Amino acid sequence: MPATNKPISYDFHGDTPFTVPFAEIDPADIHIYLDLDTKVGRNTCGQKCTHCWFVNYEKVYDKSFAMDEGPRILEGLQSHGYQVYPRYVDSFAYGGEFMRIYGPANNREFRQEADHIPTETMEKGDAWTSGRPLLGDDYVELLDLARESGYGTISITYHGVLDENLAVIDDGSYPIKGVFSGADTEKVLQRIADYNARRRADGSETADAFRVNIGVTVGRHNHGRESLLRYARYFNKLGVDTVRFNNFSDHGGRHPGLRLSREEIEQAYRDFRWLHDTVELDFQLGVSEDFGTFGIKAMGFPGHVGWCRAGRQLFAAIPAEETVLSEDGPERREKIGDIVGCVNTFEPHLGILVRTVVEGEDDARYDLEFDHEAIQAFTDKRMAGVYKDGCFAPELSEELGLVSRVPQRRRLPLLVEPTA
Description:
alpha/beta; 6-stranded mixed beta sheet; 9 helices
């Protein structure tokens, strides 16, 4: 392995064994994705990707909590000890309004090595963007705002396929529509590099420069060792800091031909390991947990990685129609949101987000009311092998009829869920 390559990073959502009852899990070990705004389009990400989870699920399409209530919900949930991640379609949405409100937020947890060391991405806020807002004329002002708000990383999802000369194939053949193109991403990366260079030229510390985290979605349109090698050489050339690969999910069932089979996922894990151990990388390689369990041993990750803790230690709180649950004298309890397991498919339903208003008190209280029976039933199904993959989302989506089943070339054995 090239001596300069950093450890491969992985997603971290906890490692409490599935045998531990949910009621015994400390709130500090529970991660909540708080979906504050799911509106796509001109004022947010500037895109409408056909595979976007915020586009394809009615539960979250075009929803939001009131802008002024979001911070109160966040603070209320944090007061109970939960690890809460404010999530919105784009960190630069509405001219950077979320940055002004929430400061240097992180959208998720990235760790490395056996002792779960946080990656450099976690040191400061992680601004998540399609890239489109930074292609506008006000990009310098937006980058200034991100820096002043305490952000240190800009994460951009990359959509592009490369030819043998490492040029983006820009002929309209990219199969996922509505995305921010790879060619335009190059322009944004150059703007960020120029911005960093100007900061250094002005005498600013190097630490003020933005790190760049690239996310690449892998499907049948771009998988395979040769394709990964091209991405590695390409992003080495562009000078980014992190490249994280995630598995294509067919949200909405619009692109069934792009989903990797389990055999292809097994090979993808071998290819990621080969890339890290063979090629000198000027960036940190990251692999999303959504590739699941099959073949993950090739990565050398801690045993719990690949067995997503969604539905036990990871949940999403999503906006819902407000309803009154109870009124007892001056106290009124209102449901304002739902708690769901998988943070990308918004299933299964596992509780509610509650606002409690007391007459005469200025501040409402916010809390999560989990459905413990539903969580246990869901855990039992996972432990019994109803869902064989550590990333249960594809199997659950097939069960619910949200996507079509991917044909397999051979039957694969049931894997036993690790307890550590």
